[in-house]
Amino acid sequence: MPPALAWNVEDRMPDKQESKVASDGAADAFAVTAIIAIVVLTLYVWLSSMPS
Predict the structure, then answer these.
(1) What is the DSSP letter of 49?
(2) pTM above 0.90?
(3) pLDDT in tens, 11-44
(4) 12 to each of 6, 17, 18, 19, 34, how far by Cα in Å?
(5) If you ran DSSP here, which 8-state letter would residue 29 be given?
(6) Which contacts of 12-20 are long-range, i.e. CB under 8 A and separated by 24 or more positions?
């Protein structure tokens, strides 16, 4: 394989990895937001049902 072609192949590899990391980060952010929303909603329902 010519050196120029090998350089281009190696150059493109990190882009795919960075894209995958960005996708994983977006999924993680969505999951954390959903978990926090569930906890807040649960606390709201629990505390609003308590007598004042």
Answers:
(1) T
(2) no
(3) 555 556 666 667 789 899 999 999 999 999 999 9
(4) 10, 9, 10, 11, 34
(5) H
(6) none
Quick one: pLDDT at residue 17? 63
Residue 9 has pLDDT above 70, yes or no: no
Token pair of 13 as six digits = 């590899």
- Encoded tokens for 40: 């807040």
Structure confidence at residue 5 as a pLDDT band (50, 70, 90): low
Kindly tell me the sign of the dihedral angle through the C-alpha atoms of 47, 44, 46, 48: positive
Cα–Cα distance measured from residue 10 to residue 7, given in angstroms and rounded to the nearest whole number: 5
Alpha helices in the chain (DSSP H): 3-48
